[in-house]
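Researcher: We plan to redesign the surface later, but first we want a full-length starting point. Tokens attached.
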């Protein structure tokens, strides 16, 4: 996991004046809107007895702890302890960590790191969000796997013909080969353009947009640090752009929040068909990704075999290592259980005796 980046931690519509817990980066945060509608992000842990503030309530733009009613401002400073008399000083340590927030492109973006504001990487741009010809749908899926594997899955062109053989990948059945492609370096990311010359009708709703015979499908894949993928599919009758934000909940869980934009069948009545198909494709990926071992991609490139079609994932691994080498990596969470090789956990013998 990487620090010093903006994380799109929740959809804007999901955050109200009721405190909401967000679990990412092996931590818990609480989000809520103040009386001006601005989003506040704090550590979801009262410094008094460790209660989750997300179980509390908003009071005059502040948040109250559900355990003893301590009141915290948007900057995390405690301003009231109900059990104390008014003249009793509030302890200096009665403070919780607050986090910078931006609300953009239908997401709440939380900055996690220690860089000053002027040195922070930018939020990736999503120009389709302002394009009236592109209709959006929103969804999220959970995968029981490390986020690095989930990102690589999104960047991989070669798995489509096999993993998605019963959906979009059906169009590659007659010609699954991947032509050589170049990976371009971009500010805070990478991209590649791939042309599929012999694509045929896929299964599912997208079959409506392809001619009966073979056609050319042009695709562009982008990766934006730390965890955003973009896949644009341009075919003769329209364009579909899929953005996915792969949130590392913990070392073994990824929550992917998605926006799909389409220039075809843009009426809202068609959303349920596109959502159903999108969930089907995501589930096909989930089954394979959850089977991978080790769950996190290896730090050493030589630990796994690579082919020319893996150029994007290799570039991602190198980019990730660049920022880990800068000291932008987060330490793995401490575990109270012992891991064993098949991915399950066992309680320690000492813990079982006590």
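Model: Full-length starting sequence:
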């Amino acid at each position: 996991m990487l620090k010093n980046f903006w994380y799109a931690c929740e959809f804007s519509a999901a955050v109200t004046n009721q405190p909401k817990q967000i679990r990412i980066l092996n931590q818990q945060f609480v989000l809520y809107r103040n009386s001006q509608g601005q989003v506040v992000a704090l550590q979801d842990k009262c410094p008094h007895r460790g209660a989750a503030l997300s179980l509390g309530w908003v009071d005059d733009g502040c948040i109250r702890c559900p355990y003893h009613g301590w009141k915290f401002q948007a900057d995390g400073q405690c301003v009231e302890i109900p059990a104390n008399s008014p003249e009793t000083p509030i302890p200096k340590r009665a403070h919780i960590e607050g986090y910078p927030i931006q609300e953009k492109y239908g997401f709440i973006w939380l900055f996690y790191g220690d860089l000053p504001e002027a040195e922070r990487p930018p939020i990736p741009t999503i120009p389709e969000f302002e394009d009236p010809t592109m209709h959006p749908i929103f969804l999220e899926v959970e995968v029981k796997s490390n986020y690095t594997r989930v990102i690589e899955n999104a960047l991989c062109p070669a798995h489509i013909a096999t993993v998605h053989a019963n959906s979009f990948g059906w169009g590659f059945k007659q010609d699954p080969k991947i032509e050589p492609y170049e990976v371009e370096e971009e500010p805070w990311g990478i991209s590649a353009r791939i042309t599929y010359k012999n694509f045929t009708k896929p299964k599912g709703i997208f079959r409506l947009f392809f001619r009966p015979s073979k056609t050319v499908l042009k695709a562009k894949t982008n990766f934006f640090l730390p965890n955003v993928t973009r896949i644009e599919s341009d075919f003769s009758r329209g364009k579909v752009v899929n953005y996915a934000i792969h949130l590392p909940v913990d070392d073994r869980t990824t929550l992917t929040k998605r926006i799909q934009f389409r220039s075809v069948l843009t009426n809202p009545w068609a959303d349920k068909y596109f959502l159903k198909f999108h969930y089907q494709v995501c589930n096909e990926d989930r089954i394979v990704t959850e089977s991978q071992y080790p769950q996190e991609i290896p730090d050493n490139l030589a630990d796994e075999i690579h082919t020319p079609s893996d150029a994007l994932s290799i570039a991602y691994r190198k980019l990730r290592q660049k920022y880990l080498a800068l000291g932008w990596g987060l330490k793995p969470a401490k575990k109270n259980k012992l891991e064993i090789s098949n991915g399950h956990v066992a309680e320690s013998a000492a813990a079982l005796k006590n």
